[in-house]
Design goal:
There is one protein chain. By secondary structure, this protein is an all-alpha fold. The chain is built from ten helices and no strands. Helix 1 packs across helix 2 and helix 8 packs antiparallel against helix 10.
Length: 217
C-alpha cells in the first residue's frame, strides 16, 4: 500500500502537532498489542507517513515509547496522589491498595515500565535518557507529597523505595499476567501450572502492604 503524500512540518506548532500524532499512533498500537511487538514501520503507517519521515521527529521507536512512559508517569502519579489523599483511615494496607489499583488499571503503562530499563533506554541518545529520567523523577513529587500527608512516618528514601518497588513489581507481574494466547491456554489447561496465572492487583497490594509495614516504625 502506498503511503499518502507527506509534507514536512515547518513551524514549531506544526512540528508539535506532528509529534503528537506520532505519539498517539504509538499509544493506540501499544494498547492493542505488546510494546515489544510494535515496530517503527507500524507506528509510521498508523500515523499516515513513511518511516523515513517519522525519523525526522524521533530518533528511534524507543524514544517514542520513552516519551509515552514519561507521560504515563505524570498521569499515574496524579491519579495515585489523589487516591492516597482520599483515604479516610491511612495505613499500610489502604496506601498499598491505592498503588496496586492505579497501576493494575494501566496495563500499557505497566508494559512500558518493564520495557524501559530492558530495551527503551538502550537505543536512544544520552540526552533522551536524561530527559526521561528527570521527567519521571519530577512526576514522583506528587506521590511524595501525598505520602507525607497520609504516612508521615515514611521518609523520602522510604518513598523512593516504595515507588521503585511498586513500578518494578507491577511491570514484571503485568508481563507474567499477559502471556501469548498459546501459553495462556496451557496455563488454563493444566492445574499444575495454576500458580503461573497472576491477578496483578491483589498480589501487588499484598507485597506493597508488607513493604510499607516493614518501613513503618
Amino acid at each position: 500500500m502506498n503511503q499518502p503524500e507527506f509534507q514536512r512540518a515547518r513551524s514549531p506548532e506544526a512540528k508539535r502537532l506532528r509529534e503528537d500524532a506520532i505519539l498517539e499512533a504509538a499509544r493506540a498500537l501499544g494498547v492493542e498489542r505488546s510494546i515489544r511487538d510494535v515496530t517503527l514501520t507500524d507506528i509510521a503507517a498508523r500515523a499516515g507517513m513513511h518511516k523515513s519521515a517519522l525519523l525526522r521527529y524521533f530518533e528511534t521507536r524507543e524514544e517514542i515509547f520513552l516519551r509515552l512512559t514519561a507521560a504515563g508517569w505524570q498521569e499515574w502519579s496524579l491519579a495515585l496522589a489523589a487516591r492516597i489523599r482520599a483515604i479516610a483511615e491511612p495505613g499500610p494496607a489502604p496506601v498499598a491498595e491505592a498503588f496496586a489499583a492505579t497501576l493494575a488499571r494501566r496495563g500499557m503503562f505497566c508494559d512500558l515500565l518493564a520495557q524501559a530499563p530492558l530495551n527503551l533506554e538502550r537505543n536512544v541518545s544520552v540526552g533522551v535518557v536524561r530527559d526521561f529520567k528527570l521527567a519521571s523523577l519530577a512526576a514522583r513529587q506528587d506521590i511524595f507529597a501525598a505520602l507525607d500527608e497520609k504516612l508521615p512516618s515514611l521518609d523520602r528514601d522510604d518513598g523512593l523505595d516504595l515507588i521503585a518497588t511498586a513500578v518494578a513489581v507491577a511491570g514484571a507481574f503485568w508481563q507474567i499476567a499477559t502471556p501469548g494466547p498459546e501459553i495462556a491456554a496451557l496455563y488454563r489447561s493444566d492445574p499444575r501450572l495454576a500458580h503461573a496465572v497472576i491477578d496483578v492487583e491483589p498480589r501487588l497490594a499484598r507485597i506493597l502492604t508488607a513493604t510499607i509495614k516493614g518501613m513503618t516504625p
